Amino acid sequence: MRSRATAGNTVIAAVTAAALCSGAWLLHSGASHPPPQPSAAEASAAPAAGRSAAPALAPSPPDRIRIPSIRVSAPLMGLGLTASGSLDVPPASEKNLAGWYEAGTMPGEKGTAIVAGHVDNADGPAVFYDLGALKRGATVEVDRRDGSVAVFTVDAVEVYAASDFPDQKVYGAAARPELRVITCGGGYSRSTGYQGNVVVFAHLTGSR
Predict the structure, then answer these.
(1) What DSSP element (H or E) covers 4?
(2) Angle at 161 between CA 159 and CA 164, to 5 degrees
(3) How far out from the chain centre does Cα 9 lie?
């Protein structure tokens, strides 16, 4: 019998991040510079900066995600699935709100935890606008409801075309505590919006 976390992640469809990607601000403002995109140097699956994995934490729901190097500090809401099988998204009007897939792995426990957030909304840049500028070795911290903080180290930052999104690589089961942070990316067209997704791959390296 599969665990709650393993079973939960396997049902997420390839269209998960499509609803994050309206590009409303770029479309309506006429801004000429889309969000930063990761360079090829950040797209490596090797463990970042030699940091070994920390032991898994006991399950506890997350309350906040912080990424100091890109000035992110945002509350987390629980997300479910839409009727089409894609991950639901936080309300677009809440620009500094991210969400986590609450039927899957909790950040810090063994497995692959999923966090997603908008890159922009109609009013301007949103919570993960600068996600593509994140570097390997950067720190992602998740405040958990039990008072602990799960500390992750970034292994890779990659960008995928929407038509070539690697479901298994992003959502598949992991033998250690891992985290994926997802938003829109891959360039922007006024006719089609964002062309793909930026995905951060990280693993648990500590807690406090």
Answers:
(1) helix 4-10
(2) 110
(3) 14
Task: Express each pLDDT in 13-29 by its tens digit.
Answer: 544 555 566 555 655 55
Residue with tokens 């399950």: 59
Is the CB of residue 151 less than 8 Å from the CB of residue 139? yes
**What domains does the chain contain, in order, with CATH numbers?**
4-207 (2.40.260.10)
Q: How far apart are the first and last CA of the chain?
A: 32
Reported confidence tier of residue 152, pLDDT bands at 50, 70, 90: very high
Contact partners, residue 173, CB within 8 Å, separation at least 6: 6, 9, 10, 111, 112
The answer to whether 158 and 46 are in contact (CB under 8 A) is no
The rounded distance, in Å, linking the Cα atoms of 15 and 34 is 21
Burial profile 75-90: b = 16 or more Cβ within 10 angstroms, e = fewer? bbbebebeeeebbbbb
